[in-house]
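Ligand-bound model needed. phosphoenolpyruvate.
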Amino acid sequence: MNKERKLIIAGNWKMNKTVAEALDLAAGLKLELANVKEVDIVVCPPYTALSEVSKAILDSNIRLGAQNMSEHNVGAYTGEIAAVMLKEFSVRYVILGHSERRQYQQESDALIARKALAVHGAALKPIVCIGETLAEREAGQTEQVLATQVRGSLAGLDKEQMVETVVAYEPVWAIGTGKTASPAQAQEAHAFIRRVLAGMFDETVARKVRIQYGGSVKPANARELMSLPDVDGALVGGAALEARSFTDIIKNSI
Ligand code: PEP
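Prediction:
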């Protein structure tokens, strides 16, 4: 597939996989995906498996991501994890502002923006998630919600940092529900997000930023979604938990 930007496909393992299960999955992916060069491949295990998965994918084409990170560098923040700790395990990417964290931990755009700055401060790359709920889409508020999230969650980044940031468009109604945005809905939202980025930064920056689609991506719909002009990859939940389906998503996207 000939794309303007290199595809980036990331697996968000969420709160799944013991260390033994994570190692099993990592070994399967390493084997199956060894020859893939056309796509940036990222896996985001839970914190408890980062150390072992990091060793397991050493010298492979699979990069490591974390699912969250503190905005602070060190100190009395019980339960939090700092950038320097992630770097010990060669983490390269950090998912920020996933809709589950926005919903269950009340993460705000302002907090996500501070975390994004901390991620860049450690020379890591954030994957910043945005997306509208079903109620917001049905009320005709999708563009307004996306514009607010883009402007708020990416506030304060400079142009160089923005180019090194991945945006994940994940309509909340499509996450874990089996409902996927139609190609037209996905393309429309991605193109809109890119226009907002052009307004915030400039056209050159907006053309370079990779925007992933997330929400019930499966082997059967990956090719069509990844072929859309403004879709530059996928953030995959459920289908990233098995080597076969994650591998097929990637191979079907090439
Ligand atoms: C996600 O949680 O980021 C996600 C897209 O999940 P799923 O693929 O299961 O819809």
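The beta strands are 7-12, 39-44, 62-66, 91-96, 125-130, 166-169, 210-214, 233-236.
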